[in-house]
Amino acid sequence: MPDSSNISDHIGLTSTIPVEIIYAAGLKPVDLNNLFISEKNPEKLLRQAEAAGFAHNVCSWIKGIYSTVINYGISSVIAVTGGDCSNTIALGEVLSREGVSVIPFDYPLNKEGDILKDQMEKLMKTFSTTWENVYSAKKRLDRIRSKLKELDRLTFKENLVSGFENHLFLVTSSDFKSAPDLFEKDLDQFLAGARRREPRKEEVRLGYLGVPGIYSDFYEVIESLGARVVFNETQRQFSMPYEVDDLVEQYLKYTYPYRVEGRIEDINTAIKERRLDGLIHYTQTFCYRQIYDIILKQAINIPILTIEGDRPGPLDARTIVRIETFVEILKDRKYG
Ligand code: SF4
Fold first, then answer.
1. N or C end: fewer C-beta atoms under 10 angstroms in the chain?
2. Ligand 1 mean position to 316 CA, how many Å?
3. How far apart are the first and last CA of the chain?
4. Residue 83, pLDDT score
5. Ligand 1 contacts CB of residue 85 (under 6 A)
6. Residue of the nearest CA to atom 4 in ligand 1?
């Protein structure tokens, strides 16, 4: 994690963007969501944003990102204003009035490759880099991406990795923790250790859908009930396990910013390949993405439990009971 004394070459990200461009420019991307949620006291950052005028009914991630940028003194932020969240547009304007340089990045909703390429080239122009440099950064990051794919395989195929470990490595691949060499070293060590483990034997195999959760003990609670998450939908998307040579194609395959059909196809593939018994759809309070719950439940044929999280911290008692009941139902369906 960067400290405020060495942040000058860091570029804040409100969501996943082509980080190859930032690395190609010799700069360090930092995912503001990960920085916020790994703070010792993320709740304090929400109160700080509320004191600055953000309303109670603004999503916690937006408030957390705001305070993180201010507290770290991050001077440049890439705001994903198309394909993510309209709150980000207003957040960008607030930050810009506070002296932060805000660079918009728009994913085209209908996945037009030429529009996406144009967005990438705008970013390359802003950071004065070339396609040649970008492809050399891509080559470097692709080596790590293929190791993350192996970590994911060890999770669902060999049963050697916990749901939380899978989540943590994949979610931090949105920026490779601003230090790809260190990230890769940690990953290599982890993989070597994981391969020596005995396989896990949980009775219930779950998929996690939706934006990464704000709860601190979600995976722990799941595993205490004899279940395990073997598919982290969005986190896996951050790791871009597509193995394609073309950078535009890579970011067109990334399902998160586009229409929901791509997500449904990806989830249905995972259900078969990973033998999922059920899905937990995490929704964030005050987030428009909650509405996708309707479509996911119409389009997917295995049981889905929808849970909602608002502020950082442990799961509340009611949600724990709902998860317990869901896991019991799945056990009954499986073993009769
Ligand atoms: S959780 Fe939803 S509302 Fe919050 S930042 Fe993400 S997309 Fe926007």
1. C
2. 21
3. 47
4. 77
5. yes
6. 59
Q: In which region does residue 275 sit, left (phi positive, over 0), alpha (psi from -120 to 50) or beta (all else)? A: left
> CB of 204 closer than 6 A to ligand 1?
no
Up-side HSE of residue 335: CA atoms within 13 Å toward CB?
Answer: 8
Residue 190 in tokens: 């982890």
Q: Which atom of ligand 1 is nearest to the CA of 33?
A: 5
Which H/E stretch holds residue 78?
Answer: strand 76-82
Residue nearest to atom 3 of ligand 1 (CA): 287
**What's the confidence (pLDDT) of residue 136?**
98
Q: What is the mean pLDDT of each run of 10 residues along the chain (336 residues)?
A: 67 97 97 96 97 96 98 96 88 97 95 97 98 98 98 98 98 98 98 98 96 96 98 98 98 96 98 98 95 96 98 97 98 90
For 330, the token pair is: 């799945």
Q: Write out the two tokens for 69.
A: 């940028």
Boundaries of every domain in the chain: 4-131
pLDDT score recorded for residue 1: 60
What is the phi/psi pair of residue 31, to 5°? -75, 115
Q: What pLDDT is stored for residue 42 in this prediction?
A: 97
Q: Is 287 in the pocket of ligand 1 (CB under 6 A)?
A: yes
